[in-house]
Amino acid sequence: MNRVWSMAGLLLCLVSVAGRAQATREKVIIDTDIGDDVDDAFALALAVKSPEFEILGVSTTFRDTEMRAKLVDRFLGEVGRSDIVVVAGKPTPATPMSQRRYAEGGHFARSSHGDAAEFLLDQVRKHPGEITLIAIGPLMNVGAAIDRDAETFRKLKRVVIMGGSVRKGYGDYGYNDPVAPMPEWNILNDVPSAQKLFAAGVPLFVMPLDSTQLKLDEVKRAFLFTRGTAVTDQLAILYYLWGLETPTLFDPMAVAFALKPKLCPVTPLHIRVDEKGFTREEPGTPNAQVCLQSIPEDFFSFI
User: Fold this and answer.
1) How far is it, in rounded angstroms, from Cα 50 to Cα 119?
2) 56 CB contacts (<8 Å, ≥6 apart)?
3) Residue 147: DSSP 8-state
4) Which of 64, 147, 153, 184 is the most exposed place for a label (fewest CB within 10 A)?
5) What distance, in Å, lies between the first and last C-alpha atoms of the chain?
6) How sure is the predictor about 8, in pLDDT bands with cuts at 50, 70 and 90?
7) What are phi and psi for residue 9, nearest 5 degrees?
8) What is the DSSP letter of 62?
9) How far is 169 from 178, CA to CA, in rounded Å?
10) Can you give the residue ranges of every domain in the chain?
11) Could you read off the pLDDT of 100-147 as tens digits, one per residue?
């Protein structure tokens, strides 16, 4: 009898531990313009391989959002995560996508995708104060959600973005001649939405060019692509479709920060997004926590 009760107690303990582990997982939504630069795929791969995350959904933004959603469908299906919801933002005029053929393969494509902004707001209503939004593309879906229901949007736990250029521009790697700040891609492609986000009053964590110009060199690529896992195999396919040589892992830093903030220590700043897409550091009450310098060695070890 004692042995039976001991076994029952052990089972109850295991169930309790599993329940606590489930409860402590971070609820996240990832908003991405996957399909052009390949760094979005690396960011999504890191997210799906992180047990610390409960991924509520992936939304696509910018240009051909439906094709991007089909790309996400296939990626998630190939790595065994078709359970994750995929939604699409409003499309904007499209240009060719480097990884379009992957999306057009038809594998795991869903018949339809819900509206990205409405999905985000609906999830926040269900889980107020619990959701981290990781935005790694132009901010169309973010702006649409704020326009529809700013009060609900502010109930996000936090927003983590890859975006902006505060003290360094493209090509400033910290060991060469300084490059002045410049409009960064994600901010530049929807300046009004970026302005709305920085004024929204939601906890905002920013990974700008200053801390995200992280080159995945040949040695690191070779190590990664020879792992032979479902995830690394898909990354290899998307890398070769991308067609260039050395990816810069801008977007994965936003995901890595959400998992391990010490990889990119933040500084409270007041940032103003001007009409040209510059993210200006100005005096005033901080409206963002900004990572101005990451730790590349630790980042790549973590990846």
Assistant:
1) 22
2) 27, 28, 29, 85, 123, 127, 131
3) H
4) 147
5) 49
6) low
7) -65, -40
8) S
9) 8
10) 26-302
11) 999 998 789 999 999 999 999 999 999 999 999 999 999 999 999 999
